[in-house]
Task: structure prediction
Amino acid sequence: MPGPEFCPRPRRIRRGAALTLVFASVLATAAATDGLPRDDEKTPRPLAARAAAATVDRDDVARAAAEAMADGKSGTKAAEDVVSRSGDRWGAVYDKSEYEEFEQALDGEYTGVGLGARRTADRRVEVARVQPGGPADKAGIKAGDRLRTVGGIDVDKRPVTEVVALLRGGNRTSVVLGLERAGRRWSETLLRTTLTTEAVTVRNLADGAVMIKVASFTKGSGAQVRNAVRAAPAGAGVLLDLRGNAGGLVAEAVAAASAFLDGGLVATYDIRGEQRALYAAAGGNTERPVVALVDGGTMSAAELVTGALQDRGRAITVGSRTFGKGSVQMPSRLPDGSVAELTVGHYRTPAGHSVDGRGITPDLVAGKGAEKRAQTVLSGLGGGS
Result:
């Protein structure tokens, strides 16, 4: 399973804080274009993370930035201060270069060394996955290796999201990793490079069913899901694995949901009180048995898909309660070229359930061994050979 470094959107919660996941992601609606959606466009961005508590007026943010610039100060810093005081948890301000990197991430690319990190039961950090052909792979680093330091910084007591920030490293081109394997300690100096994420992977299960793992909803991932469903053997069930999927483009999430639906409602959302809706495309496969695997890392756009398939009776959901991120952010340009993303509303499942702060409870709650339980359920639905 891809680790945090593979998530396409590192997100700065506050200046000086660690970059985190969103994907920890940007989510745009089905109306999203390849360019930056403006605040006056109908293209909200529900972001992956935690529930938003408060909002801030975009005019106040823009005014603070303009006044700071007029005084010869940083407009970006002034905007950040306003957002920080507002209580909008998922409001954020990005400078021009950060936002450009974020836009690149939507194309399924990121800058890093090609490894994912995770926290172990003994609270250490280890390599979760190594991307084939990346710098870490070429250096011989393997999944399961302990990651002791990044750039000379001890990572054991740091949040995994902060470890990811250190791996990515901003503008620095290289990083020294302290590693350990079977009692042997060593260091590797890796050159960061631009890598392509593998958002959708497909594998055949022993019973004839097909597992479609969606790590994130980057551009093109929705079409990949539809193609995988169409290419599956006749009568084969689908195990849709959304565990650890922190979000992505809502347009792609809707396209993925459309693979299993023949039109109809996917979600509703509001923008400053105005109600809107997202609909699936017609022509999806409504006959294949589907089981969706979810966990506490299933966020935002992934929760949107989960809620749509669950509410419309199209999938049995298995796993643990999802994260609970259902707030909607919308970006707007500030006078200095930076971008503010501010909370403007929330989305709900087809049955009208709010996700924000609540998450989605799966039909069958399962922790350890959830994947095996999901396969058993799928087989019981007639999805195996």
The chain has three domains: 4-105, 111-195, 200-324+354-380. DSSP finds nine helices and 21 strands in the chain. The two ends are 26 Å apart (CA to CA).
